[in-house]
Amino acid sequence: MDETTEQLNRVFAALADPTRRDLVARLAAADATVGELAEPYDMSLQAISKHVKVLEEAGLVTRSKVAQRRPVHLDAEVFDLMTKWIERYRRTAEERYRRLDAVLSRMSDTDQPQEDAS
User: Fold this and answer.
1) N or C: which end of the chain has fewer CB within 10 A?
2) Its pTM surpasses 0.85
3) For this UniProt entry, which residues form the secretion signal (predicted)?
4) What phi and psi, each to the nearest 5 degrees, are found at residue 60?
């Protein structure tokens, strides 16, 4: 498998978990520390940190150090990769539906009784 495929596999696997999807949604609004991310959950700071690590390994988030804080940032570039992958299959599916519509239309036209003009 090439690197792009491997990265997509990591991203989709990371986003398969509802907690991680929620973390991504919250980080889309603003950067946050692991402690801030953990606040609404009934789980340990260590558990949230593990979720963040999975997101980080998938390339969805990065961490930086600002003074004593270590905010987590959402990396939107990965979403471009996902969008391109999804778009390729969406276009293929749409083309298949257009061909099916054309076939059904032709079938419908041949099933219509011809009016006698005499």
Assistant:
1) C
2) no
3) none
4) -85, -30
Q: How far is CA 36 from CA 27, 66, 96, in A?
A: 11, 15, 46
Question: Could you identify the residue written with the tokens 């949604």?
Answer: 25
Residue 116 DSSP label: P
Q: DSSP character for 33? A: -
Taking the CB of residue 61, how many other CB atoms lie within 10 A of it? 25
- Residues 6-37 have pLDDT tens digits of 999 999 999 999 999 999 999 999 999 999 99
Q: Give me the domains of the chain, ranges plus CATH numbers.
A: 3-110 (1.10.10.10)
Instruction: Enumerate residues 6+ apart whose C-beta is below 8 A from 38.
Output: 44, 45, 48
Closest CA to 55 of 30, 24, 29, 91: 24
Q: Which among 19, 15, 31 is positioned nearest to 79, based on CA atoms? A: 15
